[in-house]
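Q&A log
Question type: sequence-to-structure
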Amino acid sequence: MPEDPSPSLTPRRRASAARSRGWLQDRLDWLKVRRHWMTLVGIVAALILLLVLGTFAYAFATLPDPSRLDLAGGDIQIVDRHGTLIEQRNAEGVRVIPVKLNEISPNLRNATIAVEDRHFYQHHGVDWGRVIKAGVVDVITRRPQQGASTITEQLAKIAILQSPKKTILRKLREAMVATALESKYSKDEILRLYLNSIYYGHRATGVEAAAEVYFGKHAKDLTLGEAPLLAGLPNGPTYFDPALHKDRALARQAVVLDAMV
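Response status: OK
Response body:
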Protein backbone atom coordinates (compact mmCIF):
# COMPACT_ATOMS: atom_id res chain seq x y z
CA MET A 1 0.00 0.00 0.00
CA PRO A 2 1.23 3.56 -0.75
CA GLU A 3 2.37 5.57 2.17
CA ASP A 4 0.10 8.26 3.61
CA PRO A 5 1.17 11.81 2.77
CA SER A 6 3.20 13.49 5.40
CA PRO A 7 0.99 15.20 8.01
CA SER A 8 3.09 18.35 7.60
CA LEU A 9 1.89 18.85 3.98
CA THR A 10 -1.79 19.10 4.86
CA PRO A 11 -1.59 22.46 6.70
CA ARG A 12 0.47 23.87 3.82
CA ARG A 13 -2.15 22.87 1.29
CA ARG A 14 -4.87 24.32 3.47
CA ALA A 15 -2.95 27.59 3.81
CA SER A 16 -2.39 27.72 0.04
CA ALA A 17 -6.05 27.05 -0.63
CA ALA A 18 -7.00 29.75 1.87
CA ARG A 19 -4.70 32.24 0.15
CA SER A 20 -6.19 31.35 -3.24
CA ARG A 21 -9.71 31.82 -1.91
CA GLY A 22 -8.69 35.14 -0.33
CA TRP A 23 -7.13 36.38 -3.58
CA LEU A 24 -10.19 35.29 -5.53
CA GLN A 25 -12.49 37.08 -3.09
CA ASP A 26 -10.37 40.25 -3.29
CA ARG A 27 -10.51 40.06 -7.05
CA LEU A 28 -14.29 39.68 -7.02
CA ASP A 29 -14.65 42.59 -4.60
CA TRP A 30 -12.44 44.75 -6.81
CA LEU A 31 -14.52 43.86 -9.87
CA LYS A 32 -17.71 44.76 -8.01
CA VAL A 33 -16.27 48.16 -6.98
CA ARG A 34 -15.01 48.75 -10.52
CA ARG A 35 -18.42 47.86 -11.97
CA HIS A 36 -20.07 50.22 -9.50
CA TRP A 37 -17.80 53.13 -10.44
CA MET A 38 -18.16 52.43 -14.15
CA THR A 39 -21.94 52.50 -13.76
CA LEU A 40 -21.72 55.78 -11.86
CA VAL A 41 -19.39 57.31 -14.46
CA GLY A 42 -21.72 56.16 -17.23
CA ILE A 43 -24.72 57.80 -15.55
CA VAL A 44 -22.82 61.08 -15.06
CA ALA A 45 -21.59 61.02 -18.68
CA ALA A 46 -25.13 60.38 -19.93
CA LEU A 47 -26.46 63.29 -17.87
CA ILE A 48 -23.72 65.61 -19.20
CA LEU A 49 -24.47 64.48 -22.75
CA LEU A 50 -28.18 65.14 -22.25
CA LEU A 51 -27.38 68.57 -20.83
CA VAL A 52 -25.14 69.43 -23.78
CA LEU A 53 -27.67 68.17 -26.33
CA GLY A 54 -30.46 70.01 -24.53
CA THR A 55 -28.43 73.24 -24.57
CA PHE A 56 -27.74 72.86 -28.29
CA ALA A 57 -31.41 72.12 -28.98
CA TYR A 58 -32.60 75.13 -26.97
CA ALA A 59 -30.02 77.44 -28.55
CA PHE A 60 -31.00 76.28 -32.03
CA ALA A 61 -34.74 76.51 -31.34
CA THR A 62 -34.48 80.11 -30.12
CA LEU A 63 -32.33 81.37 -33.00
CA PRO A 64 -33.77 83.73 -35.61
CA ASP A 65 -34.47 82.15 -38.98
CA PRO A 66 -31.06 82.15 -40.76
CA SER A 67 -32.76 82.61 -44.14
CA ARG A 68 -34.31 85.88 -42.94
CA LEU A 69 -31.21 87.49 -41.43
CA ASP A 70 -31.12 91.05 -42.74
CA LEU A 71 -28.64 93.19 -40.86
CA ALA A 72 -29.85 96.40 -42.49
CA GLY A 73 -33.53 95.65 -42.07
CA GLY A 74 -33.94 97.70 -38.89
CA ASP A 75 -32.23 100.87 -40.12
CA ILE A 76 -34.31 104.04 -40.44
CA GLN A 77 -33.42 106.61 -43.08
CA ILE A 78 -34.54 110.24 -42.85
CA VAL A 79 -34.58 111.97 -46.23
CA ASP A 80 -35.66 115.35 -47.52
CA ARG A 81 -38.44 115.88 -50.08
CA HIS A 82 -35.94 115.28 -52.88
CA GLY A 83 -34.92 111.90 -51.47
CA THR A 84 -31.54 113.08 -50.24
CA LEU A 85 -30.42 111.26 -47.10
CA ILE A 86 -30.36 113.54 -44.06
CA GLU A 87 -29.72 111.01 -41.31
CA GLN A 88 -29.75 107.27 -40.71
CA ARG A 89 -30.33 105.43 -37.45
CA ASN A 90 -29.92 101.75 -36.64
CA ALA A 91 -32.42 99.47 -34.89
CA GLU A 92 -31.35 100.84 -31.49
CA GLY A 93 -32.01 104.42 -32.60
CA VAL A 94 -28.30 105.28 -32.74
CA ARG A 95 -27.18 107.64 -35.50
CA VAL A 96 -24.93 105.89 -38.00
CA ILE A 97 -23.08 106.93 -41.14
CA PRO A 98 -22.78 103.74 -43.20
CA VAL A 99 -20.02 103.66 -45.80
CA LYS A 100 -18.94 101.15 -48.42
CA LEU A 101 -15.86 99.02 -47.84
CA ASN A 102 -13.87 100.89 -50.48
CA GLU A 103 -14.66 104.09 -48.55
CA ILE A 104 -12.79 102.76 -45.52
CA SER A 105 -9.03 103.10 -45.35
CA PRO A 106 -7.17 99.81 -46.02
CA ASN A 107 -5.08 100.76 -42.99
CA LEU A 108 -8.12 100.49 -40.75
CA ARG A 109 -9.38 97.31 -42.38
CA ASN A 110 -6.01 95.63 -41.94
CA ALA A 111 -5.62 96.91 -38.38
CA THR A 112 -9.06 95.66 -37.37
CA ILE A 113 -8.51 92.20 -38.81
CA ALA A 114 -5.03 91.98 -37.27
CA VAL A 115 -6.15 92.75 -33.73
CA GLU A 116 -9.69 91.32 -33.70
CA ASP A 117 -9.62 88.28 -35.98
CA ARG A 118 -6.32 87.37 -37.67
CA HIS A 119 -7.85 84.36 -39.45
CA PHE A 120 -10.96 86.21 -40.60
CA TYR A 121 -10.60 85.17 -44.24
CA GLN A 122 -9.83 81.54 -43.37
CA HIS A 123 -12.54 80.45 -40.91
CA HIS A 124 -16.29 79.99 -41.48
CA GLY A 125 -17.58 82.12 -38.64
CA VAL A 126 -15.86 80.42 -35.68
CA ASP A 127 -12.10 80.19 -35.17
CA TRP A 128 -11.95 76.85 -33.33
CA GLY A 129 -8.18 77.00 -32.83
CA ARG A 130 -8.59 80.32 -31.06
CA VAL A 131 -11.50 78.96 -29.01
CA ILE A 132 -9.40 76.01 -27.78
CA LYS A 133 -6.44 78.26 -26.98
CA ALA A 134 -8.65 80.69 -25.05
CA GLY A 135 -10.26 77.79 -23.17
CA VAL A 136 -6.89 76.39 -22.12
CA VAL A 137 -5.69 79.81 -20.92
CA ASP A 138 -8.94 80.38 -19.02
CA VAL A 139 -8.64 76.98 -17.31
CA ILE A 140 -5.01 77.61 -16.33
CA THR A 141 -5.74 81.08 -14.94
CA ARG A 142 -9.15 79.97 -13.56
CA ARG A 143 -10.84 83.04 -14.97
CA PRO A 144 -11.65 84.46 -18.43
CA GLN A 145 -8.45 85.97 -19.81
CA GLN A 146 -8.79 85.80 -23.58
CA GLY A 147 -11.56 86.61 -26.00
CA ALA A 148 -12.18 84.16 -28.80
CA SER A 149 -15.01 85.87 -30.71
CA THR A 150 -14.41 86.35 -34.41
CA ILE A 151 -15.50 89.46 -36.29
CA THR A 152 -18.52 87.51 -37.54
CA GLU A 153 -19.46 86.45 -34.00
CA GLN A 154 -19.12 90.02 -32.76
CA LEU A 155 -21.38 91.19 -35.59
CA ALA A 156 -23.91 88.52 -34.63
CA LYS A 157 -23.84 89.75 -31.03
CA ILE A 158 -24.13 93.44 -31.96
CA ALA A 159 -26.69 93.30 -34.76
CA ILE A 160 -28.83 90.27 -33.94
CA LEU A 161 -28.50 88.79 -30.46
CA GLN A 162 -27.93 92.14 -28.71
CA SER A 163 -27.15 90.46 -25.39
CA PRO A 164 -24.39 91.76 -23.09
CA LYS A 165 -24.47 88.65 -20.88
CA LYS A 166 -21.42 86.37 -21.09
CA THR A 167 -22.89 82.90 -20.81
CA ILE A 168 -22.18 79.57 -22.49
CA LEU A 169 -25.65 79.64 -24.06
CA ARG A 170 -25.04 83.10 -25.53
CA LYS A 171 -21.66 82.01 -26.91
CA LEU A 172 -23.27 78.97 -28.48
CA ARG A 173 -26.03 81.03 -30.10
CA GLU A 174 -23.41 83.55 -31.19
CA ALA A 175 -21.44 80.79 -32.96
CA MET A 176 -24.59 79.44 -34.65
CA VAL A 177 -25.67 82.86 -35.92
CA ALA A 178 -22.11 83.58 -37.10
CA THR A 179 -22.11 80.39 -39.14
CA ALA A 180 -25.46 81.37 -40.66
CA LEU A 181 -24.14 84.85 -41.51
CA GLU A 182 -21.12 83.35 -43.24
CA SER A 183 -23.44 81.36 -45.50
CA LYS A 184 -25.49 84.47 -46.37
CA TYR A 185 -22.87 87.22 -46.71
CA SER A 186 -19.42 87.39 -48.24
CA LYS A 187 -16.38 88.13 -46.08
CA ASP A 188 -16.13 91.69 -47.40
CA GLU A 189 -19.82 92.28 -46.68
CA ILE A 190 -19.40 91.01 -43.12
CA LEU A 191 -16.36 93.24 -42.59
CA ARG A 192 -18.27 96.26 -43.97
CA LEU A 193 -21.28 95.58 -41.75
CA TYR A 194 -19.06 95.12 -38.72
CA LEU A 195 -17.10 98.35 -39.27
CA ASN A 196 -20.37 100.24 -39.70
CA SER A 197 -21.87 98.72 -36.51
CA ILE A 198 -19.11 98.67 -33.90
CA TYR A 199 -19.02 101.26 -31.12
CA TYR A 200 -15.85 103.38 -30.79
CA GLY A 201 -16.81 105.61 -27.86
CA HIS A 202 -17.93 109.26 -27.66
CA ARG A 203 -21.31 108.30 -29.19
CA ALA A 204 -19.54 107.23 -32.37
CA THR A 205 -21.06 104.06 -33.82
CA GLY A 206 -19.39 102.98 -37.04
CA VAL A 207 -15.98 103.84 -38.42
CA GLU A 208 -17.07 106.92 -40.39
CA ALA A 209 -18.51 108.57 -37.30
CA ALA A 210 -15.44 107.55 -35.29
CA ALA A 211 -13.06 109.03 -37.87
CA GLU A 212 -14.98 112.31 -37.74
CA VAL A 213 -15.10 112.41 -33.93
CA TYR A 214 -11.47 111.54 -33.25
CA PHE A 215 -9.66 112.95 -36.29
CA GLY A 216 -12.12 115.22 -38.11
CA LYS A 217 -11.80 113.32 -41.38
CA HIS A 218 -13.43 110.59 -43.44
CA ALA A 219 -12.70 106.92 -42.78
CA LYS A 220 -11.07 106.58 -46.20
CA ASP A 221 -8.41 109.14 -45.21
CA LEU A 222 -7.18 107.50 -42.01
CA THR A 223 -3.38 107.17 -41.90
CA LEU A 224 -1.25 104.25 -40.75
CA GLY A 225 -0.88 105.92 -37.37
CA GLU A 226 -4.54 106.85 -36.90
CA ALA A 227 -6.05 103.54 -38.02
CA PRO A 228 -4.44 101.38 -35.28
CA LEU A 229 -5.61 103.83 -32.64
CA LEU A 230 -9.21 103.53 -33.83
CA ALA A 231 -8.97 99.76 -34.33
CA GLY A 232 -7.96 99.34 -30.70
CA LEU A 233 -10.91 101.25 -29.25
CA PRO A 234 -13.79 98.70 -29.58
CA ASN A 235 -12.04 96.43 -27.07
CA GLY A 236 -12.64 99.11 -24.41
CA PRO A 237 -13.91 102.48 -25.70
CA THR A 238 -13.82 104.10 -22.26
CA TYR A 239 -10.71 102.38 -20.94
CA PHE A 240 -8.69 103.26 -24.05
CA ASP A 241 -10.26 106.67 -24.61
CA PRO A 242 -7.38 108.82 -25.93
CA ALA A 243 -8.97 111.97 -24.52
CA LEU A 244 -9.06 110.57 -20.98
CA HIS A 245 -6.32 107.95 -20.97
CA LYS A 246 -3.73 108.87 -23.56
CA ASP A 247 -1.10 106.45 -22.20
CA ARG A 248 -3.51 103.51 -22.43
CA ALA A 249 -4.61 104.51 -25.93
CA LEU A 250 -1.01 104.71 -27.15
CA ALA A 251 -0.18 101.36 -25.54
CA ARG A 252 -3.18 99.80 -27.25
CA GLN A 253 -2.15 101.44 -30.53
CA ALA A 254 1.27 99.78 -30.19
CA VAL A 255 -0.39 96.38 -29.63
CA VAL A 256 -2.40 96.80 -32.83
CA LEU A 257 0.68 97.88 -34.80
CA ASP A 258 2.57 94.82 -33.57
CA ALA A 259 -0.34 92.60 -34.65
CA MET A 260 -0.22 94.13 -38.13
CA VAL A 261 3.42 93.16 -38.66
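Response note: The first strand starts at residue 76 and ends at 79.
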